[in-house]
Amino acid sequence: MHAMVIQHLPGKLMDGEILRRAIERIDELGRISDMPGELRRTFLSKANLAAGACVMKWMGGLGMEVAHDAGGTVRGILPGNGHTSRAIIIGSHLDTVIDAGKYDGALGIICALAALELLRKEGCKLDYPVHLLGFSDEEGVRFQSAYLGSAGVAGLLGPDLLAVRDEAGKTLAEVLLTEGWKAGAEVFSYDEFSSSGYLELHIEQGRVLEEAGEAIAIVSGIRGQARLRVTVEGLADHAGTTPMNLRRDALTGAAECVLMAEGLARESSALVATAGTFKVRPGASNVIPQLAEFTLDVRHMEDGFLNDSLERMRRNFTAICERRGLRLGWNPVQINHAVNCDERMIAELLDCAESVTGKRRLLGSGAGHDGVMMSKVMPVGMIFVRCRAGLSHHPDEHVEADDIGKGIEVMAEFLKRRNA
Ligand code: HGY
Ligand code: MN
Ligand code: MN
């Protein structure tokens, strides 16, 4: 764990108490894990529910009215002074990837809390309610489908998503029934009338800010993302007696497919393709693999290019499998198209960023975020905070205290300027 040394503190947080508490909370959430020795919180896991309960405690401490839904998303409501009922939603996600860093998701929730604390310290009452949401599942580790928490609150958990299955073959619908956090659960539901916007602070998870020597960027949009489960089926046989030309080796066929996808992505600077998981059956060293299954994560800023790339991969995988006497299973799990952030929020956030940092940096997001789902029912804005070497989805993910303080100030400034 990195001892967070607070050197120079930004202006408004000079006493450091709010920033210090935010950093302590990042460390505290960073210790709530399903796996000793690494950080892991997934959909409805024990640690994810514990993290949600911890955030509810902090929100309660700020006088917010707290609740959770059956999927594990938590919410705090800070009522406004009644001038308008249209809330502004702030927050991020509670869950993590496997062996994660402690800032992806958590930073956005904790900075949202800190921004409200900063406004309270400055005696700033807001005209409108603020809803702080900690989404239960943005990474999609358990079901390989992203944004389940925000899809839930945006009313987008349709039959397709409810039918996705986890490793054990359980559907999301079954898991909600059997493992849901039902005691005291409320239904969170937002539509285009309930809120005037969703604002999320998140680490950049890229290198642009670090290379520019800047702390803050405002996000222009979120790249489209396709998640697939690909299976390649061959024929198990004896590793010692089967001649190479008679083999129908599922693993080598799948490997050729993965390398084809990588090759295609290397041809174009804005396309990325990743096989993050790879399983082989039966999985004995002296048996030619019968079945190989891998996940494919493919992303691009333009939907048309993403769709064309997926079609090229599917066609090439089919050809590879035919040539090798293998059977291809091409199974899209979830395709989210690119999302633009709201022009008005971008303009306001750039002004806020300039007032805090003197810079106006606009940046597209290669990573996915809950704003993809929230954008279906409300305007979306995002604040990026620099992270060291752009490293993320890794235990060494790191953000400097000063940059956290600036992020909190930009968010607080935005909320303040939304007052009439
Ligand atoms: O995968 C992503 O882009 C995000 O971290 N969920
Ligand atoms: Mn994230
Ligand atoms: Mn992530």
SSE map:
Layout: H1 17-30, H2 46-61, E1 65-68, E2 74-78, E3 87-93, H3 106-121, E4 130-135, H4 148-153, H5 159-162, H6 172-179, E5 195-203, H7 208-212, E6 216-222, E7 224-233, H8 250-267, E8 272-274, E9 278-281, E10 291-300, H9 303-324, E11 327-336, E12 339-340, H10 343-357, E13 362-365, H11 371-374, E14 380-385, H12 401-417
Parallel strand pairs: 3-4, 3-5, 5-14, 6-13
Antiparallel strand pairs: 1-2, 2-4, 6-12, 6-14, 7-10, 7-11, 8-10, 9-10
Helix pairs in contact: 1-3, 3-12, 8-9, 10-12
The structure holds (2S)-amino(hydroxy)ethanoic acid and manganese (II) ion (2 copies).
One manganese (II) ion binds at residues 97, 104, 139, 393.
Describe it for me?
Strands 1, 2, 3, 4, 5, 6, 12, 13 and 14 form a nine-stranded mixed beta sheet that branches. The protein folds into two domains: 11-223 and 338-417, Zn peptidases (Aminopeptidase), CATH 3.40.630.10; 225-336, Alpha-Beta Plaits. The model is unreliable at 1-10 (pLDDT under 50). Helix 8 packs antiparallel against helix 9 (303-324). The longest helix has 22 residues, at 303-324. The chain is α/β, with parallel strands linked by helices. It is elongated, with a radius of gyration of 23 Å. The protein has twelve helices and 14 strands. Helix 3 links the parallel strand 3 and strand 4. The protein starts with 16 loop residues before the first helix and ends with a helix. Helices cover 35% and strands 21% of the residues. Bound molecules: (2S)-amino(hydroxy)ethanoic acid and manganese (II) ion (2 copies). One manganese (II) ion binds next to loops.
